[in-house]
Design brief:
about 170 residues; mainly alpha; globular
Length: about 170
């Protein structure tokens, strides 16, 4: 078996978009592929297919592999408000995932879901206290998109303007 061909096929299915919904069961199988790149492409392609892929993406948000969880959140982010049914799971990921990139991706997904992310404001408010600056930043941006009020988001962003870590601010 050629993992490159599975990866290429998964990517190509995703470029078809919603019309490829018949491929969702096959992509779900690929989420457990031995090859990480194949799993990632499958997750992203599920996001391009749209809401019919949400149950599979919710499953992959619990995957043991950090990249699969990250790319699953990214796939949900790509759906925007159509992923509103994933908001509760994304809030759980934002609150509990051990990986800050995954938490950040969950925050970004909630932001793109926007006001349709039921309960999103409260969970994003809590994430403003995350120990990782990138998560705080993404949660602040998402909170602004979810509740439309810049107050709490602006306070966090102003704090991050003072961050001396080179990744965030050059002196």
């Amino acid at each position: 078996e050629d993992s490159f061909m599975r990866e290429l096929a998964a990517w190509t299915v995703g470029t078809i978009g919603p019309e490829a919904k018949a491929a969702v069961p096959d992509l779900i199988v690929l989420l457990d592929d031995d090859n990480q790149d194949v799993r990632l492409r499958a997750s992203v392609s599920l996001g391009h297919i749209g809401p019919e892929a949400i149950p599979a993406l919710l499953k992959s948000l619990k995957h043991k592999s950090q990249p699969v969880r990250y790319w699953s959140a990214y796939a949900l982010e790509r759906m925007g408000p159509k992923a509103k049914d994933a908001a509760a799971m994304l809030l759980g990921v934002l609150a509990k995932d051990q990986d800050f990139d995954v938490r950040g991706a969950a925050a970004s997904a909630l932001g793109e879901i926007g006001p349709a992310a039921e309960g999103g404001g409260q969970g994003l408010q809590a994430a403003l206290q995350d120990g990782e600056p990138r998560v705080r930043f993404l949660a602040a941006e998402a909170l602004w998109k979810v509740d439309g009020k810049p107050g709490a988001a602006l306070a966090v962003l102003q704090q991050e303007l003072k961050n001396k870590e080179p990744l965030y601010r050059k002196e």
